[in-house]
Amino acid sequence: STPVPSEMPSPSPSGPPVLPISEHEDEIVAAVEANPVIVVIGETGSGKSTQLSQILHRRGYTRRGAIAVTQPRRVAAVSVSRRVAQELGVSIGEEVGYAIRFEDRTSEKTKIKYLTDGVLLRESLSNPELKQYSVIILDEAHERSLNTYGHLYVTQIYR
Known about the structure:
Blueprint: H1 25-34, H2 48-58, E1 66-71, H3 74-88, E2 96-100, E3 103-105, E4 112-116, H4 117-126, E5 133-138, H5 146-158
Parallel strand pairs: 1-4, 1-5, 2-4
Antiparallel strand pairs: 2-3
Helix pairs in contact: 2-3
């Protein structure tokens, strides 16, 4: 049975907690390697927002660019990035960071970057191919507008 949120393991600098999505790590990586776009569906609390980026980071995807994880809201980009940084035992702005309107807590060392759709769109204006990213994760896709999907379609054409 899936643990309820109060039973979820607490984060520690020794690594991410074991969440239901972890059981599918090999399948997820195989799907990412075989397809330009994948959809991951899971229950709330299964680890999609915090663990997908860490799985891909562990598997070497950050060797050829950062992993971008878009969030529909600024507060989500900040809170999820802090959680991931805590799980990895790093400070915000180092290996894990976030970029929201008027605030950029990333550096040259940032490998996992949480950002809003608007920030990604602005980045695409100066770099339409978004080559600084090896993977772009669109989190909470059900909360997106057609504008977001149109942007992803344009991005996909360049890849």
